[in-house]
Fold:
Amino acid sequence: MGDFFKWSRVWEYFPKILSKFPITLEIVLGSFAIGLVLGSIIALIKINKIPVLCQLGSIYISYIRGTPILVQLFIAYYGIPVFVNSVLHIDVNGWDKMVYVYMAYGFNQAGFLAEIIRGAIISVDAVQTEAGYSVGMTGAQTFFRIVLPQATRIALPPMGTTFITLFRSTALAYMLGIMDIMGKAKNLGVTTFHTLEGYVDATIIFVITSIILEQIFNLLNKRLDYGKGRVVKQRKEVAAK
Amino acid sequence: MIEIRDAKKAFGKNEVLKGVSLKVDTGDVVVILGPSGSGKTTLLRCLNFLERADAGTLIIGDEEVNLHKPSRKQILSVRRKTAFVFQNYGLFNNKTALQNITEGLIVARKVPKAEAIKKAEEVLEWVGLLDKRDYYPSQLSGGQQQRIGIARAVALDPEVILFDEPTSALDPELVGEILEVIKNIAKKGITMVVVTHEMNFAKDVASKVIFMDEGVVVEEGTSDEIFLAPKEERTRQFLKRIIPPEYII
Amino acid sequence: MNIDYEYFKLYLKYGISYLPNTLYMTLISLVFGVVLGSGIAIVRTYKVKVLNPIFTLLLATLKAVPTNLIMVMSSIIFTRNFINITKVLGINMKLREFNMLYLASFALVLTSVAMISESIRGALLSVPKVQYDAGYSIGLTKTQNFFRIILPQAFLVMLPSMMSNVISLIKMTSLASTLGVMDVLNGCLQKSGTSYRFLEAYLAAALIYWVISIILELIGKLLEKKLNVYRKQAL
Structure:
């Protein structure tokens, strides 16, 4: 029983588990990118109220928000091959497991990001669009130069939260046999019969990374404030010189 | 020269414009008066296609545009010949004072950047806010924001500037400074259409006053004609309510 | 597409039969979450000395660690020390007699506390300072002011985020299946091993969770509407 947990093993395993951190990071960044693209498309469909697609979008969002990511993960793993095989007639035998992980987490993010993006865009005051039109900009120019930057600002804090949630939820990817932080922690346990230490290492990595991510988002938030304080400060500094 | 013929607009069952015609000559300062809900703001917004009229024609310069079914090209062309000053300033929240002015020049009118900045600094200086060039709207007072809104319109060098109640969102003590700025534009000979509740401003500056009520032009004339000798009963009633008796000469 | 509807229906039935366990775990984590979360939220909102920094650190950790990781670690510690625990408590019980549902609930409570205390804190912070001043100005004590003025207002703000917390908790209970707890997910999966009809089993589980979430969301909207009516009448 005394051999059950040892700090020395925590230190011994740490570099081995940390070496799998890039895999976790890959999953997070890859699926966030997929989610951002797909989520933006769904958001635009819903804002422009495109018939049929709009309703499908709502059902999709409801499904993503209403079911556990664990279930979504396995539906992607078992369901996508069936779908791709029978509908698209493509052989999936050679596909890497990571493909399903990206898809599961990416589709999941799309559901959450779509709502955030939609909310942010419609919360930008209509006058901003009108002002863009009034100085002679086209619809696209107004959207990309005026509305989108302001919407991004609004969407940033909730996006930060979903990003950190996504990071935590990747701790389930090992169930498909992915060798990420969790996968390695489990694997070390199986080969050495000392399971707890590896999980403690994983915990440490999750906590530190979450804190770092939170700081990054806080910094971004402050940077992108469109003048709530920043310019005045700069001016004062210039004046002081 | 700008002409509007028979502009009509309804929101659901509510007919806001029941066939409005209007002529603005180059260098005119047209002030549109009328009680709230008379359709004056809607008329102005239809001119810039911020609102789509149900019927009517707009002639601006040598271009004739159907107010109901304009082509995309026509909308852009009209918007690039006009400028709009908003009631709530309508400054781009994500752009500095300077960028608010250069945006329309660089992006919409393809003016070279250096030239656009020079122009923007000029107009900022003119409204007395050059020192605020790098400030964001959130850091400026309402009066300052509206001065930049006006500077933005002037910098575009449009054929006409449309003012939509430019002082009604401001604190009373700031109204004067904005009206002063608008008066200075009038002196430059720029064509303007101004929707406002400021009677004294209308008296001093307008070359033509239009009184609207319930979606129609009730009466139009010079400021003397409207204020000193209104012909229509509705105009008289309106002026009586708005202007305290001692001011009616 | 190659989906066997009969198996889907069968697994759906199995899954639904274990719904009570899923709801039970949700209830446990909700109740403990609200009780402990309120305490932590009050400490953090009003910056109680000593406790505030401790709880802040604790929450930051709990929010960062994946729930399934908490679950797996507590199960390792618990099962390895099970004999000692029973000795200390003076009960005679074998490990396989112990219902892992409670262990899963323990891990869920930890996450739930972090989640719920954040919603409560957000709601408390949303009450404007002038509401406190107004209460004090008519001579209410701190406690009176909190329970009579601040809490009722915060409650209205809290409702939507609380409803989404409950939905999150229900979804999170599915992690208990990794400890072998017979919940909705494991119920759906229990016979899929022999038929290799995994997709049908997971689809059945998804449908059950989805329907519960939709029902909860509707209840939340209804409640909000009702409360908003009161608010408007009060105005």
